[in-house]
């Protein structure tokens, strides 16, 4: 059974940092590229960034470049999103997803506010 379980969200002040995790089960994690998405209130889900199966390649949406870092631990079937210098516009629910897609998890809420 495929499961993607995101965690690590919370309330943080502008300029702060959070590290999100996504624990995967039910498929061979090390064989899949992975994406992080987010959905802001009242907006469509958008791609934040991606990482290759090996972890050696990453890509980011322009607004998060230089602030967010995606990494993975294939031995632990876990995907990470390190978010630094957070801005109010980073507020939203964050999701991980395999490429090609499997099942959406419940996401983890990030709120950036003073």
Describe this structure in words.
This protein is mainly β and 114 residues long. Helix content is 0%, strand content 50%. It is built from no helices and 10 strands. The protein has strands at residues 3-7, 10-12, 18-25, 33-39, 46-51, 58-60, 68-73, 78-83, 92-99, 108-112. The mean pLDDT is 96.
Q: How do the strands of the widest beta sheet line up side by side?
A: 2-10-9-4-5-6
Number of helices: 0
H and E string: EEEEEEEEEE
Strand coverage percent: over 45%
The helix/strand class is mainly beta
Strand count, sense and barrel status of the largest sheet are: 6 strands, mixed
* Low-pLDDT segments: none
Helix content: under 10%
Query: How far is the N terminus from the C terminus?
Result: 40 Å
Question: Number of DSSP strands?
Answer: 10
Indicate the mean pLDDT. 96
Q: What sort of overall outline do the alpha carbons produce when their principal axes are compared?
A: globular
Using the CA coordinates, give the radius of gyration: 13 Å
């Amino acid at each position: 059974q495929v499961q993607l379980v995101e965690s690590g969200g919370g309330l943080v002040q502008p300029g702060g940092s959070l590290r999100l995790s996504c624990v995967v089960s039910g498929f061979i994690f090390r064989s899949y590229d992975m994406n992080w998405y987010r959905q802001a209130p009242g907006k469509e889900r958008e791609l934040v960034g991606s990482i290759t199966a090996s972890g050696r390649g990453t890509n980011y949406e322009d607004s998060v470049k230089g602030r967010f870092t995606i990494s993975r631990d294939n031995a632990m079937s876990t995907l990470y999103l390190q978010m630094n210098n957070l801005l109010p516009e980073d507020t939203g629910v964050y999701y991980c997803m395999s490429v090609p897609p499997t099942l959406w998890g419940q996401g983890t809420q990030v709120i950036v506010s003073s």
